[in-house]
Amino acid sequence: MSYSDDEWWIYRTYTDPDGIEFNVMGLVLLAAAIVMLWQEPGYMVFIMCLAINVLLHEGGHYIAGRAFKCVVRRVAVFFIPVVSYKNRATSSYDPATHSWRDTVWTLGVLPFGGYTTFETATTPAPATPRHSPFLNHKPAWQRLIINTAGIMVNLATFVVCLAINGFSLTVTGNPWLSTMLYLSLSLSVLNLLPLYPLDGAAAIISIYEVCTGHKPPKTLLTIFQIAGVVLFIYLFWLNPSILNKLINLVISN
Asked: What predicted TM-score, i.e. pTM, was given to this entire model?
């Protein structure tokens, strides 16, 4: 097992020969979170169902990206990594041989969502972009599908949960089904917002390219980024009571 040479031990990452990597800070935070969640079973159900929904969401992006021969760099559930896994030491950029073994799979401890990152290139797209492994070389309609695939999976999860519950939004006696039902719908609606870095912003940009045939002006991209930063600062720092009410609503059902 090897470890990084960071100055302070808590920032170190430990990697074994099988490609599993542990982050010390993430493990410490995870231990603290488990202690707190053990005392609040309702929040435990919420976190577990959120992790499942985020994994399904990011899995949608991954499957759509692979369907269009994109190279997927990393798939992460939650932030502040606890453990990561990559089967191969080096990644293959050949769409014919690239597989899940070339992707870094990460589980974090901070339950604010997840992300899927694709390889991009600074060089212009080739004459046949469908053979390129880079996301930004793909046609706008393909990127639109990739960007909205996570939302589609969350909506499908909502429909499945709704069907299991007899197509009723009222769930009694089953906190897991209730939480999955409300979280899958909430994540779908949240990610539809056209605010960076949510999927809705990327979808709007792709739709703009599909309709106009060229990339949007930098001013529009800047507006998305600023609005997204302002929204997240407002929700997580200035007025977190909105998120707390949403969590309590999900837990109480």
From this structure: 0.84
